[in-house]
Design brief:
Elements (H helix, E strand, L loop, with lengths): L2 E7 L2 E7 L5 H12 L6 E2 L2 E3 L3 E4 L32 E4 L11 E4 L12 E7 L1 H8 L14 E8 L1
Antiparallel strand pairs: 1-2, 1-9, 2-8, 3-9, 4-5, 5-7, 6-7, 6-8
Length: 157
C-alpha cells in the first residue's frame, strides 16, 4: 500500500507518494523522521534551476542530518526506477551507502544519477510548487536568497 507525505512549504503544499516496495528501509527512515517532526521548520538549502531542489538537513548547511539507523545507511537502488523526469524523490548522499536525512526532488530528467541515488518516491500533487521552488533566485553556492522553508511535514494516513 502506498504511503504519502505532505510538505507544507513557503510556496504551497507538496504531496509525495513513497515507494514502499522498492525502498522499504529508506521509506521507513523518511516516514519515521516525519513522525518525529525532524523536517519541520527546515529549509531547502540547495536549489539548482532545471536540476533539483534539496532539503532535509536540520542545520540548513547541506552537511548535517542523521537517519533513524544512526549516522548513515545503505542505498536501495532499484533497476526499475530511473531519473526520467521532474518530480522524482531521492536520497541525497556523499557517495555509495551514505544516506542520512537529506533528500532531493528532480526538476528535469537526470539520467546521470541512475544507480547513484536511492529513488523512494515521486511528487503526487503540487508539482507547480516544486517548479516554483526551482525558479527562486539563488547565490553562487545554490542557496536561495530568501529562505524556502518546509514549515511542516505530515504523514498522510
Amino acid at each position: 500500500m502506498a504511503q504519502f507525505v505532505s510538505l507544507e512549504t513557503s510556496v504551497g503544499n507538496i504531496v509525495l507518494e513513497l515507494y514502499t516496495q522498492h525502498a522499504p528501509k529508506t521509506v521507513t527512515n523518511f516516514t519515521e523522521l516525519v513522525k518525529r517532526n525532524y523536517y519541520n521548520d527546515t529549509v531547502f538549502h540547495r536549489i539548482i534551476k532545471d536540476f533539483m531542489i534539496q532539503g532535509g538537513d536540520p542545520t540548513g548547511t547541506g552537511r548535517g542530518g542523521h537517519s533513524i539507523y544512526g549516522k548513515k545507511f545503505e542505498d536501495e537502488i532499484s533497476p526499475e526506477l530511473k531519473f526520467t523526469g521532474a518530480g522524482i524523490l531521492a536520497m541525497a548522499n556523499a557517495g555509495p551507502n551514505t544516506n542520512g536525512s537529506q533528500f532531493f526532488i528532480t526538476l528535469a530528467p537526470t539520467p546521470h544519477l541512475d544507480g547513484k541515488h536511492t529513488i523512494f518516491g515521486r511528487v503526487y500533487e503540487g508539482m507547480t510548487f516544486v517548479r516554483r521552488l526551482g525558479n527562486v533566485k539563488t547565490d553562487a553556492q545554490d542557496r536561495p536568497d530568501v529562505p524556502m522553508k518546509i514549515y511542516r511535514a505530515t504523514l498522510l494516513e
